[in-house]
């Protein structure tokens, strides 16, 4: 970015409340400007959180279904 600057490489728009948490609205109240580096870091962090949330939901579904431990006669 420093050696060969190109318009559009420095700033990006980010959802304050992530889309996966219901922040899909593109109103100005839910948008912020971040530098490209900060946006990549934030996006990676949110991807990790989203993945952990999916795993947790999947684990709770398996853990709450104890019917597979019972035998029918």
From TrEMBL:
One Pfam family here: HNH
Keywords: ATP-binding, Endonuclease, Helicase, Hydrolase, Nuclease, Nucleotide-binding
A GO-annotated cellular component: nuclear replication fork
Domain HNH: 9-43
InterPro entries reported for this sequence: HNH, HNH_nuc
Keyword Ribonucleoprotein attributed: no
Gene3D superfamilies with a match to the protein in the record: 1.10.30.50
GO terms, biological process: DNA repair; replication fork processing
Gene Ontology MF, one: nucleic acid binding
Protein name as it appears in the record: DNA annealing helicase and endonuclease ZRANB3
